[in-house]
Design brief:
Blueprint (H helix, E strand, L loop, with lengths): L5 H7 L3 E2 L11 E7 L6 E10 L5 E8 L6 E7 L7 E8 L2 H4 L2 E4 L4 E4 L4 E3 L7 E4 H13 L2 H7 L1 H18 L6 E7 L5 E2 L11 E6 L3 H6 L8 H10 L10 E6 L6 E10 L5 E8 L6 E7 L7 E8 L8 E4 L3 E5 L4 E3 L7 E4 H15 L12 H18 L6 E7 L5 E2 L11 E6 L3 H6 L10 H5 L1
Parallel strand pairs: 1-3
Antiparallel strand pairs: 2-3, 3-4, 4-5, 6-11, 6-13, 7-10, 7-12, 8-9, 8-11, 14-15, 15-16, 16-17, 18-23, 18-25, 19-22, 19-24, 20-21, 20-23
Helix pairs in contact: 3-5, 4-5, 8-9
Length: 453
Amino acid sequence: MVEQKDSMTKSRTIFNDLDASEENFDSGITEVDSVCMSCFKNGRTKLMLTRIPFYRDVVISSFACDHCHYVNNGIESANRIQANGVRYKLIVSDPKDLNRELVKSDFALFKIPLVNFEIPEGTQKGYLTTIEGIIDRVITNLEADIELRKEIDPDSCVKIADFVQKMRDLKDFKLGNFEVILDDPSGDSFIENPIAPAKDPKMSVNFYKRTVEQNEMLGLNNDENIEDQIVEKTEKGEVDLRNEVVQFHNNCPNCNAICETNMKLTDIPYFKSVIIMCTVCDNCGIKSSEVKSGSGIEEKGVRYVLKLTDRSDLDRDVLKSDEASFEIPEIEFFMGPGTLGGKFTTIEGILKDAREQLSEKCPFAFTGGDSESKDKAGRMKECLDKLEMIQNGHLLNVTVIIDDASGNSYLQNIYAPDEDPNMKIEHYERSYEQNETLGLNDINTENYQDQAQ
């Protein structure tokens, strides 16, 4: 659960919410003189520090040169690197999908497998665009020097022209539907879900733990993992997590200032041990809590299906891990894995956090700009109203589904040790894709020492 002192936070923030309304069009834009890298004369750079809804704080830059008319733009995250990498897979099946907003960071890999097209990580600066915008950018860049290439290398020029035509056919859907993959180990890339908060049937979003090589590429030190150090000390008996609270310094998730985090191991009845961490920042006033499993990934995934029939059902304890999704089918509400992080709260608490997350950071639904459609804004407001009605107990007889492929989530059975007549618990075998997301497919636990030799 996250709380923050509005007055303190607003007074400190320099990132305004993204707003395309006329009265706020020029707010927060800074202009500076800079050298044009094309003609080496003075050009003009505009910088805007803004908060993209459902994403994070970013710095958007736009450069234009009046002498040679060279233009360039980019986007960089103003937040610290995310805890996990993210992988988006989108099936583009109609022209509306081409208009989806897309944020590509410096470290993101962009692929269209159908035409064997790939933008490797680290080859381009980050930018904010659309699916169609990326395709148009590729076509423009390839056609820029095509006349010069005809004289130098006619054969490659023919191949480039064929590929450009293939990209045009791709945009016009002459090649049929196609898949777009955006893989970013920094976690700072994003593809818009136009039907949020409902689950997007065309897109899958997976959060994953970075490899050692990816951490090195991002400039992260793999040796300074505080949590791993504490676990190691616990195994050696130097720290007793069950009987004492461990304190360590960490960066604030809101303002990145140094703050203190408390951590303790506790037992949940009829479940398992979990690690509860709480962070309080004296600089911006934010308070956040997170829950992690005290044991490894379970052999099977788990799915809880609960019918809310009484106001008291909202008081049931919930342990939601990072890998768990939360869904209410009756109002078309879906919260994917990785959203809100790990939490130990109640059903009412999750609903409250979900409403706050959507109302403050909803993707382009309340910005008032040209990216907003009235249908989308109305759908989002209706969903928020229904979430509030469920949270207050005014709308019952709805189904809550918690699905966790790692098996580390828990929903309280108030009839324990007897069965709960309103709740179904299903343990299932994970799919290959789910095991891949959890990093289990490449793990070898048998005879690994012999193989290493």
